[in-house]
């Protein structure tokens, strides 16, 4: 955890992206290929209009934006159409792709978007993501200079307006991005998160396109692994992208992290078992419960140490959230509550392999292979 914290601070957005802001705008003589921005959308994410508008304000000479929704009644459409009208010079296309029952719904949308896109490069981002104007240009420059076929990014969770959002954003910044940066920096192991992936179209096509991953829930991880296993270079330029979480509830935080936990347990069980070591608060409390008062001081010291590490990460990375006094006042209690909740999350894969994701109920197997639930299984799951 010390290494994770140190690497996150070293690669924090406050220094790297400030340098990027000082870099020159694109030169007309440089080769900037057409990029297709692929945006699967469902419903209203926090800050959706500002999130989507940030992709219309990019400092990049040639790109198009393609959206995919389930149907023409999706509540996000009014915002999408308003932005498309506000920025007519940027080619925008909207697809209604339906909502499949037997495959990964995000991949279903991406497959349609891939078929309708024109770019040599594909940039996949979630609707919850907000970016800086220079983000795409820097990703493409990294693609060109490194000869990589996939560029992935650390994720900055921010804009907390509820306790659960502060939990979620702290979890993303400490655990998720900590692992993304540490595993890449120390072991050259890519942990690709679907919040932002820049892909070479021809390399993706060589694998069979997005539809190759339609039967798996952890599509982002498997895309990165498949690229690397096929001999395509994977890289990052440590340009963080913002994931906006303002009003998460404890229920939504629990469901989201439980889904991720079930997927990780199916991708690499030994590594998942070792994740418990990243929750020293629970280990110390268990030791105190088992051996009594002599371990009280140890438990308190471990809890204080964990709070300090996460608080240092918070101060270094999450500039928007550190401006709110309530986040500082609630931070110690939030860390302890989060870690206790995450221990319950950690146990979930040992009791159930069922995932609930945006109205879909899947059973997942090895490598996150998905199987739709029967009506009876869904009834049992919902009643439980």
Could you walk me through the main structural features you see in this protein, from its secondary elements to its overall organization?
The structure is a single chain. This protein is of the alpha/beta class and 384 residues long. The chain folds into two domains: 2-244, Alpha-Beta Complex (Spore Coat Polysaccharide Biosynthesis Protein SpsA, Chain A); 253-383, no CATH class. The chain has 16 helices and 13 strands. The chain has helices spanning 2-10, 13-21, 48-53, 77-86, 105-116, 135-146, 163-187, 201-207, 219-229, 250-267, 269-274, 280-291, 296-317, 319-322, 325-347, 375-383; strands at residues 35-40, 63-69, 92-96, 121-125, 129-130, 150-152, 155-158, 196-200, 234-236, 241-244, 354-357, 360-364, 370-372. The chain has a seven-stranded mixed sheet with strand order 3-2-1-4-8-6-9, with helices on both faces.
Please give a quick description of this structure.
This protein has 384 residues and is α/β, with parallel strands linked by helices. 51% of the residues lie in helices and 15% in strands.
Topology, please?
Blueprint: H1 2-10, H2 13-21, E1 35-40, H3 48-53, E2 63-69, H4 77-86, E3 92-96, H5 105-116, E4 121-125, E5 129-130, H6 135-146, E6 150-152, E7 155-158, H7 163-187, E8 196-200, H8 201-207, H9 219-229, E9 234-236, E10 241-244, H10 250-267, H11 269-274, H12 280-291, H13 296-317, H14 319-322, H15 325-347, E11 354-357, E12 360-364, E13 370-372, H16 375-383
Parallel strand pairs: 1-2, 1-4, 2-3, 6-9, 7-10
Antiparallel strand pairs: 4-8, 5-10, 6-8, 11-12, 12-13
């Amino acid at each position: 955890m010390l290494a994770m914290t140190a690497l996150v601070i070293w690669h924090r957005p406050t220094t790297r992206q400030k340098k990027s802001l000082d870099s020159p705008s694109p030169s007309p003589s440089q080769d900037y290929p057409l990029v297709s921005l692929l945006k699967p959308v469902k419903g209203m994410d926090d800050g959706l209009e500002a999130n989507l508008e940030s992709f219309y304000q990019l400092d990049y000479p040639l790109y198009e934006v393609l959206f995919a929704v389930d149907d023409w009644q999706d509540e996000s459409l009014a915002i999408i159409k308003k932005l498309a009208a506000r920025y007519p010079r940027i080619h925008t296309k909207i697809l209604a792709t339906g909502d499949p029952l037997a495959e990964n719904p995000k991949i279903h949308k991406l497959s349609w978007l891939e078929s309708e896109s024109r770019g040599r490069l594909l940039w996949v981002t979630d609707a919850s993501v907000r970016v800086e104007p220079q983000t795409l240009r820097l990703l493409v420059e990294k693609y060109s200079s490194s000869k990589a076929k996939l560029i992935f990014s650390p994720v900055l969770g921010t804009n907390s307006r509820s306790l659960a959002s502060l939990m979620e954003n702290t979890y993303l910044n400490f655990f998720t991005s900590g692992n993304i940066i540490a595993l890449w920096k120390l072991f050259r192991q890519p942990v690709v998160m679907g919040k932002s992936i820049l892909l070479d179209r021809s390399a993706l096509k060589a694998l069979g396109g997005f539809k190759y991953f339609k039967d798996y829930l952890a599509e982002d991880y498997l895309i990165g692994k498949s690229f690397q296993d096929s001999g395509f270079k994977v890289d990052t330029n440590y340009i963080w992208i913002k994931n906006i979480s303002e009003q998460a509830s404890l229920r939504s935080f629990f469901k989201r992290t439980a889904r991720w936990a079930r997927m990780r347990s199916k991708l690499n069980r030994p590594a998942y078992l070792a994740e418990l070591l990243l929750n020293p608060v629970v280990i110390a409390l268990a030791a105190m419960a088992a051996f009594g008062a002599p371990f009280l001081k140890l438990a308190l010291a471990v809890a204080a140490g964990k709070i300090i590490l996460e608080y240092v990460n918070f101060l270094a990375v999450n500039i928007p959230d550190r401006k709110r006094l309530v986040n500082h006042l609630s931070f110690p209690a939030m860390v302890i509550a989060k870690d206790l909740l995450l221990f319950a999350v950690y146990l979930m894969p040992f009791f159930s392999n069922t995932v609930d994701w945006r109205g879909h109920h899947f059973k997942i197997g090895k490598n996150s292979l998905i199987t739709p639930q029967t009506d009876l299984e869904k009834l049992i799951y919902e009643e439980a």
